[in-house]
Each structure stands twice: as structure tokens, then as C-alpha cells.
């Protein structure tokens, strides 16, 4: 029944045989391009996905994977290029049109309504009706076989919010399957799943494949990609750089293709490491925060840039939150800037000279409708200043100084921050902390969504802060940044600090460590 | 997601050069402190100017038909009668600016007035009783704040409850009857002062109101408390992560609102010489409306005390203007509502225009 049935070619030479029985292409993407403003996200992307196969798409952050998936789901429209489904060119102008063409997507962030029941979530906006009224009975009838096929054994009237993350994902998949799709897209489906849930997800995918559904699988976790996928496409800078059946690939090859050429010239020149030559500014022993961070110990010296690497949910964000006072540690012994213990809230953190540049600039870092001046003084005035009256002259002078020092491109200090470019916005976030001359700087992915010129300036700034005696904990999802800037790199995996790497570590070794928690066996 | 997050490199070509310390080609923005608006402390006086023009036009229109309306005594009396809701409107600006809303202030007003009037009746010096009323109001505001912070609930939700609690307790204390200090108490300096008119025309109470408006204006725009209030209203999460003490600021602002409500209540007692069980019951909507008409958005992050003052006067002119024009007074409620809708519609149009211009100047997010 399956087109991948190899029954007729047992003894023949394998390559020839595959050419004969390879199932037909169901999705064919050709020359797809997409730019946001001036930044190219996809550039003449090509992709061929075969029926009944799991096709993995991998690449570093910003490689264009999510944009490609959004275009295929009809959520974003391409600037140019074509999409063919079963050989016929189609326009996927809206999510509804894409659905009608048989494209089903399970998004990275689960998109369910937590207060509504499983059934209600399965039939959002297409509830079966009887005489104009939503028929719960017919919903239950239609849902039962699909829920059974994904192995979700819960009362369909349970509110989705009470399910585990893994179960919620099954609801998402069931929702997609109810559409009777030709292609199911999973955008980083297992970033929040534990091992058992991942196993279950894979067995469902294998079963879908036998029903001739093609699966597009986007993931960061290469080991799992090699376990589940039939073919792999590696993307870099919006282009496909490698596309092959998984049987003809090694993980090392994939990693090399993902990383590409080194971008060393982006970073300020190296200098001798300072660890050991200076007293530690931060010493953490046995730090535990719930289940998100378990028994973490390390130290960081003044003048050191410590890189933090880890997948989403590996505990890096929790670590930064605990040091900044937004997460309460359950256990651990910390000495932080000559004082014992961690600050209990961000105000205390700021007054101790600890700063945090949060990952979500627009929601956590800035008041978009406030002026550059106001944003630059939020810490110095809002958190630090003791007196009651604003000293407007010195606020303006200080903000003007930061604008000049950081080369923030703004028409005036009164300009709303929301009108600046991403890079200049991020400089404002950094500038408001520079204003208080912090001694411990926590950077949570500070170059996300920032153009290359501003990135280079931010790297330079990080180095300057360290050279000025600050201690930097630098988290980044772009591993090349960590290798280019950090004095050493701490790798977190599932809440634990598993590996410490020197800055000279090869990029594929680091990627391996981030994905598996340990360095490859061959590596020293 | 990360793909979409990239923003267009809109910076000048100079940004491609490696950064070097010291000033480069780009000129620093002007840092002269001549005008607060140029430095971004405030959006400028344009918002208040619009409201002021609207007020003058309204007064002029009524005056055109009924010239008596323009008599200074008439206008000043009108201002005096707006003082009580006006004081509350000045305070609610702080809550709106913090992206919160208080529903209970009308009953804090009432309860504080009742407590002060009862104290006067029982022989407490009226000035001391007035002070007690203000402190009492501040206490009720602090209760709102503590509940909101401890339960992590919006002030709106908390004050839905305390609205009735304060009202109910006030009714218990005043035994559902008007509290009227005895006639000999009402001869005291306190009552004389609050009903006096400077030069025979300017009511003292109006002058107090204007002085309070100036003080609160400075508090909002020139002090750390006001700065924190606006920052929290603009983006609570970013404020918290900038180290701004959100909980403490909330407590301070709600205590301030309580004190202002109490002040308004004790002024009311001094001006009217009595307090009804229902005094303050009708304040909720006109007070919030006055702040909104004045240009303080519900979305938080900005606020104008002077605008609220003008907004209160606009509402006062409408309700008394309708009487002057001989229109049945029942229309005044409708017209007040209509003005609110027009005011917020105009405000929204201006905002959308601004946003569109901003979007054009930055084509990619």
C-alpha cells in the first residue's frame, strides 16, 4: 500500500532501485524569496518534499526556517517564487486557503485556547452544526477517531489548560489531522517535550507517514532529526545549502553546513583570558530553581565574558532570572558582587549594580511610546535615584551622552523609541543600564533582531564593558557569537550545567554539546 | 519567529564602520532644556491647548445666546461647583497614567466627609477634623493598594469590592442620615474660610483647587514618583525589569488617590456644611470622563493634570450651559456622554494619524 514499498527490488542495486520507487513530490517550492523591510529572510529557496516522508528542515536561528513554514501555512506571503502541490501551482494567500489545499501546521508556540475544552479547540471556527446550533454530539463523533489515532486518552470536555504540554501538542496535531491534510508542518514541535512525550510524538509521525501524509519537520535537535527524518534540508541565510536523504548524511556534515563560514571579523580582537587572575565577582554553588535549573555551580571573574549556551528551556533564562531577582531560587549558595545571596527583586538587583538586558526587547526592555530620553533614564531615575525631584537638566545631559557614546541614531531625545530601528532600540536598552555603570551585566540574546552593523557595535560594547571591569554573562542563541566573544562557554542542557568549553571550541562540537549535553566522544 | 524579528537596517551607512570611541559623524541631538517637550518629558502643551480651545468655544457659544453666562461671578461659581468632582479627576489621572482605574473614590470621598463631619459634631476642631478626614481617605486608598498588590489583581477588580465596602461602612457610621455639624460649629473659621470669596468674587475653594492642580501637575511631571507612575503605565513588565519598584509605586499612588478623595470630601463638608448619605454617588463617570476629555488615555503611560482640570470645567459648562439655554436639564447627561464620545473619537483620530506617520518612517518591524 505504501509507495515506499520496496518489495519489487530486493536484490537490485539500491540507488537504481530508489530512483524507481521514490514516491512522488507533493510539495515543490521553487525560487521562493521573502524580505522584511530590508532584511532578506528567504532568498530563492527551493524544497521538494515527497509523499509519505518525514522531511526535516534544520538551520541556525535566522536561517529562514520559520519564514518558509509560515509561507507554506499561508500566514505570510512570499515576495516571489512558486509553490506547487502535487504538480499544480497554488496560491497560499491566507491560512484558510492553505488549509483548503491540505497544508496543516502545528506552530512552535502552542496556539490553543486554554480555558476551552479539547473539543472546542479541535473545531475552532468550523464547529459542525445542526439546525444552526453547534452540535456537541457530532463534534464528539468526528473527534473520537482522530483523538484515538494520536493516542490522546482524555475526556474531550477537559479544558486544554489542564493538560500537560505534551497532551496539548497532541490536541494541536489532532486539530490539524481533522482537516485531512496532505502535508503536516511541525515547527520545532519538541522543544518543550520530555523524552517520553517525544517518543510518543515520533510514533504518531511514523503512523501518519504510513497514511501517505508528508511531514515537514523543523527542529534544532539534530539527534532526533536523524532518528525520525527520511530526508534533511539544511538552510543558511535563507538558502538551501544541503538537501539529501538521511541515509547519505552524517551529523557532522549537517552541522558544518548549518554553521557555514566563520564570521570572525565581526568580533573585536581576542585578548588573554582573565579567569583566575582576578577574584570572582560571582560565585554560584548548587543553585536550584524549581525543576528549571538544577544544582548549577560556576564562578565568573571581573572583566570576564562568560558565554551561556543552551536550547530553549535548558535553564539559561532561569539562571539569568534568578541572578536578577525575578526567579526565586529553591537552594544554592551564591556570592554576588561582594554580598552573599541573590537580590530578591529587580530594584535591589539594580541597586547592587546588576543589570539585565532582556530577550524580548519590545515587551520587556522598552516603553515604545516613551521618548528616547525617558527610556534611557528608566533605571537611573526609576530604580536608583534617591531624591524625589527629577533633575531634568542632568537627565538630558546623561541621555545625550549615551546617545553619543552608543551612536544611537535618533532625530532627537524626544523621539519615541518605537520609531527607531531594532538595533538602535537595543542600544537604548543597553544604554539605560550603562547609565548606572553596572558591575554584573546579564545579556539575554542581545543581538536578536538586530542588523549586522549594530551587532558589531554591540559586540564591541560588550568587550568594552568587560575591559572596564564588568562581569558579563552573555546568553546567545547564535553559537557563533559565543565563540567569537566569550572567554569561555557554559553549556546548559535540561536544567543542568553539563559542559564548559574554551572559546576556541569548534562550532560543530559546541552545537553537539548544546544538542546532547556533552561534547562528541572524539573531542578532547 | 526569529526570521520575522529582523528589522530593516535603517541606520545610516556610517553604521557599517567599526565603532570607535568618541564622537563621530552623527551630531548629538539638542540637549538644551528650554522646553520640556523637546526633551521628551511631556508630549507638549498641544493636548491641553485643544481642550482649552474647546472650553473657550463652549463658553462662547452659551454666552452668545445668553450673555449673562459670561459674567465673571457666574463663571467662577460654576468653577466652584466643579471643585469636588474636579479634585477627584486630578487624582484619577495618576491611576489612568499607571494603566489602572479606581472605582471606589466616590465612596472614599463620602466616607471621609462623614468621618470628618462626625468628628466636628463631636467637638473636634474643624481643621483637625478635616485633616483626620484626609488621613482617613489616604488609609482607605492604602487598603485598595495593599489588596491590589498582595492579590496581584488590577485595581479595577479590587475597587469593585471596596466600592461597596466603603459605601456600606459609611452608611453604618452615618446611620443612613445626613451628617450636619451643629449650627455653632458651622460658624467656625473652617466653614467661613471655605465659603469665602476673595475680593468678593473669587471663591477660596476654587483657588485651592487650582493650587492643587499645579501641585499635582508638578508631582506627575517633575518628580520621581510621577516618572515611575508613567513608566509603569507605559509597560509594566519593562518597568519591573528596569528595577522600578512597581508595588511600592502602586501603593503610593493609591494612597495619594485616597488622600485626594478625602481632601475633596472635607472641602465638601466645609463648603456645604453637611454631607448626605448619597454625596459622591454620582461622581464615578463624570470624574473619569473629565480625565479622558482632558487627554489622559485609558491605555496608560501618559496623563495630564491640567487637561483633567479643563475637562471638569467642560463638563460643568455643559450641564450649567444647558440650564442657561433653557433646555430641559435632563438633556445634560446625554450631552455629557456625547462630548465624551466626541473627545475620545478626536483623540483616537489624532493618535491613528500619528501612528500612521510613525509606521511610514519605519517600514519593517
**General form of chain A:** globular
Rg of chain A over CA atoms, rounded to whole Å, is: 25 Å
Biggest β-sheet of chain A, characterized? Answer: 6 strands, mixed
Low-pLDDT stretches of chain B are: 1-40, 361-365
Please write the CATH class name of the largest domain in chain A.
Alpha Beta
Output the helix-strand order of chain B.
Answer: HHHHHHHHHEEHHHHHHH
Share in β-strands of chain B: under 5%
Across the major sheet of chain B, the strand order is: 1-2
The CATH architecture of the largest domain in chain A is 3-Layer(aba) Sandwich
> How would you characterize the largest beta sheet of chain B?
2 strands, antiparallel
Helix content of chain A: 25-40%
**Treating each run of at least 4 consecutive H or I residues as one helix, how many helices of chain B?**
16
**Number of folding domains of chain A?**
3
By CATH reckoning, the class of chain B would read Mainly Alpha
Helical/strand content category of chain B = mainly alpha
Gross morphology of chain B is globular
Write down how many β-strands of chain B occur, each being a DSSP E stretch of 2 or more residues: 2
The helix-and-strand class of chain A reads: alpha/beta
- At the fold tier of CATH, the topology name of chain B is ABC transporter involved in vitamin B12 uptake, BtuC
Averaged pLDDT of chain B: 84
Amino acid at each position: 500500500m505504501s509507495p515506499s514499498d520496496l518489495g519489487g527490488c530486493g536484490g537490485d542495486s539500491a540507488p537504481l532501485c530508489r530512483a524507481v520507487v521514490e514516491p512522488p513530490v507533493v510539495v515543490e517550492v521553487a525560487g521562493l524569496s521573502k524580505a522584511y523591510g530590508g532584511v532578506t529572510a528567504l532568498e530563492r529557496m527551493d524544497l521538494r518534499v515527497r509523499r509519505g516522508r518525514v522531511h526535516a528542515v534544520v538551520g541556525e536561528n535566522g536561517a529562514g526556517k520559520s519564514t518558509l513554514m509560515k509561507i507554506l501555512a499561508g500566514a505570510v506571503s512570499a515576495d516571489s517564487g512558486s509553490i506547487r502541490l502535487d504538480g499544480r501551482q497554488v496560491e497560499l494567500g491566507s491560512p484558510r486557503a492553505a488549509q483548503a489545499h491540505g497544508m496543516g501546521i502545528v506552530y512552535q508556540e502552542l496556539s490553543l485556547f486554554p480555558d476551552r475544552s479539547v473539543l472546542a479547540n479541535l473545531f475552532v471556527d468550523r464547529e459542525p452544526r445542526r439546525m444552526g446550533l453547534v452540535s456537541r454530539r457530532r463534534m464528539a463523533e468526528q473527534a473520537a477517531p482522530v483523538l484515538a489515532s494520536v493516542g490522546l486518552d482524555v475526556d474531550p470536555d477537559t479544558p486544554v489548560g489542564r493538560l500537560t504540554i505534551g497532551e496539548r501538542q497532541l490536541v494541536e496535531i489532532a486539530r490539524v489531522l481533522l482537516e485531512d491534510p496532505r502535508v503536516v508542518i511541525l515547527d520545532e514541535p519538541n522543544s518543550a517535550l520530555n523524552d517520553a512525550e517525544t517518543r510518543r510524538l515520533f510514533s504518531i509521525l511514523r503512523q501518519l507517514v504510513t497514511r501517505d501524509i508528508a511531514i515537514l519537520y523543523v527542529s534544532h535537535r539534530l539527534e532526533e532529526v536523524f532518528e525520525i527524518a527520511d530526508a534533511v534540508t539544511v538552510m543558511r541565510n535563507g538558502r538551501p545549502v544541503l538537501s539529501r536523504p538521511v541515509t547519505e548524511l552524517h551529523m557532522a556534515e549537517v552541522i558544518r553546513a548549518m554553521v557555514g563560514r566563520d564570521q570572525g571579523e565581526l568580533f573585536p580582537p581576542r585578548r588573554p583570558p582573565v579567569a583566575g587572575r582576578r577574584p570572582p565577582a560571582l560565585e554560584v554553588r548548587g543553585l536550584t530553581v524549581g525543576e528549571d535549573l538544577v544544582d548549577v555551580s560556576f564562578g565568573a571573574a571581573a572583566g570576564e565574558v562568560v558565554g551561556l549556551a543552551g536550547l530553549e528551556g535548558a535553564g539559561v533564562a532561569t539562571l539569568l532570572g534568578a541572578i536578577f531577582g525575578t526567579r526565586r531560587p529553591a537552594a544554592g549558595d551564591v556570592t554576588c558582587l561582594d554580598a552573599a545571596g541573590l537580590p530578591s527583586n529587580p530594584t535591589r538587583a539594580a541597586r547592587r549594580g546588576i543589570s539585565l538586558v532582556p530577550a524580548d526587547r519590545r515587551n520587556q526592555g522598552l516603553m515604545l511610546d516613551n521618548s528616547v530620553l525617558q527610556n534611557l533614564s528608566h533605571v537611573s531615575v526609576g530604580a536608583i535615584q534617591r531624591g524625589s525631584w527629577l533633575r531634568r537638566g542632568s537627565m538630558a545631559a546623561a541621555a545625550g551622552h549615551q546617545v553619543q557614546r552608543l551612536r544611537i541614531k535618533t532625530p532627537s531625545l524626544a523621539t519615541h523609541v518605537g520609531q527607531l530601528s531594532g538595533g538602535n532600540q537595543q542600544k537604548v536598552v543597553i544604554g539605560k543600564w550603562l547609565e548606572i555603570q553596572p558591575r554584573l551585566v546579564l545579556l539575554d540574546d542581545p543581538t536578536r533582531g538586530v542588523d549586522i552593523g549594530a551587532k558589531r557595535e554591540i559586540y564591541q560594547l560588550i568587550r568594552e564593558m568587560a575591559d572596564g571591569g564588568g562581569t558579563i554573562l552573555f546568553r546567545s542563541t547564535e553559537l557563533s557569537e559565543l565563540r567569537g566573544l566569550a572567554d569561555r562557554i557554559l553549556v546548559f542542557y535540561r536544567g543542568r550545567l553539563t559542559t564548559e568549553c574554551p572559546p576556541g571550541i569548534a562550532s560543530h562540537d559546541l552545537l553537539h554539546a548544546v544538542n546532547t549535553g556533552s561534547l562528541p566522544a572524539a573531542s578532547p | 519567529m526569529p526570521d520575522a524579528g529582523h528589522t530593516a537596517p535603517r541606520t545610516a551607512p556610517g553604521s557599517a564602520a567599526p565603532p570607535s570611541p568618541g564622537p563621530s559623524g552623527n551630531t548629538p541631538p539638542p540637549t538644551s532644556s528650554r522646553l520640556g517637550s523637546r526633551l521628551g518629558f511631556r508630549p507638549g502643551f498641544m493636548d491641553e491647548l485643544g481642550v482649552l480651545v474647546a472650553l473657550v468655544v463652549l463658553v462662547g457659544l452659551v454666552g452668545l445666546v445668553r450673555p449673562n453666562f459670561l459674567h465673571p461671578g457666574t463663571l467662577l461659581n460654576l468653577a466652584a461647583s466643579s471643585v469636588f468632582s474636579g479634585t477627584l479627576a486630578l487624582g484619577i489621572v495618576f491611576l489612568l497614567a499607571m494603566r489602572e482605574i479606581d472605582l471606589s473614590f466616590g465612596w472614599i470621598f463620602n466616607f471621609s466627609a462623614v468621618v470628618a463631619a462626625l468628628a466636628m459634631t463631636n467637638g473636634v476642631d474643624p481643621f483637625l477634623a478635616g485633616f483626620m478626614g484626609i488621613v482617613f481617605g489616604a488609609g482607605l486608598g492604602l487598603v485598595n493598594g495593599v489588596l491590589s498588590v498582595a492579590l496581584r489583581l488590577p485595581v479595577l477588580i479590587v475597587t469593585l469590592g471596596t466600592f461597596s465596602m466603603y459605601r456600606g461602612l459609611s452608611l453604618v457610621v452615618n446611620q443612613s442620615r445626613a451628617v450636619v455639624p451643629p449650627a455653632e460649629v458651622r460658624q467656625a473659621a473652617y466653614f467661613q474660610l471655605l465659603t469665602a470669596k476673595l475680593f468678593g468674587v473669587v471663591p477660596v475653594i476654587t483657588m485651592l483647587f487650582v493650587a492643587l492642580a499645579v501641585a499635582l501637575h508638578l508631582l506627575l511631571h517633575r518628580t520621581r514618583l510621577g516618572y515611575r507612575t508613567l513608566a509603569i503605565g507605559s509597560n509594566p513588565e519593562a518597568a519591573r525589569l528596569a528595577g522600578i519598584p512597581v508595588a511600592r509605586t502602586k501603593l503610593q499612588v493609591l494612597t495619594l488617590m485616597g488622600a485626594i478623595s478625602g481632601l475633596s470630601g472635607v472641602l465638601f463638608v466645609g463648603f456645604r456644611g453637611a454631607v448626605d448619605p448619597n454625596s459622591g454617588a454620582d461622581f464615578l463617570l463624570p470624574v473619569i470622563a473629565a480625565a479622558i476629555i482632558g487627554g489622559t488615555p485609558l491605555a496608560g503611560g501618559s496623563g495630564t493634570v491640567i487637561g483633567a482640570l479643563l475637562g471638569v470645567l467642560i463638563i460643568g459648562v455643559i450641564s450649567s450651559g444647558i440650564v442657561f439655554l433653557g433646555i430641559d436639564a435632563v438633556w445634560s447627561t446625554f450631552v455629557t456622554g456625547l462630548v465624551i464620545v466626541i473627545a475620545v473619537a478626536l483623540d483616537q483620530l489624532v493618535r491613528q494619524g500619528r501612528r500612521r506617520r510613525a509606521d511610514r518612517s519605519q517600514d519593517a518591524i
